[in-house]
């Protein structure tokens, strides 16, 4: 079902993705981080839906449908390293930096910094071309909103 998108993402020289495909790929990355600790919690699913609805100006039903489709893409996507590198080449930096903040939002959705999620995010940020200091600032912004 997602073969064409995955083929374009993992091409040797991927071209920028159309908006609809970029949304799908970035939402799949949110799903992957949420699943990384083996507990795809209701809080994380709800947070993904809120992030997607806000980012892409969708109503709750549209956001849930996008997330559900992204769950399928995430299941079929290659390993995180290749998937993330592909997104890096297909999505502008400003968008990737905002994705790191959204990833931190999902990681912290259940109120805990789980080791597996934390480790995956520390790996994903540089693969997306986002520096450690920018990732730390994104985490701090998310934590500040939660206080």
Automatic annotation (TrEMBL):
Under SUPFAM superfamilies, the record lists: TerB-like
A Pfam family the protein falls into: TerB
InterPro entries hit by this protein: DjlA_N (IPR007791), TerB-like (IPR029024)
**Domain of life assignment:** Bacteria
CDD domains, sorted = terB_like_2
The Co-chaperone DjlA N-terminal domain extends over: 24-140
User: What protein name applies here?
Assistant: TerB family tellurite resistance protein
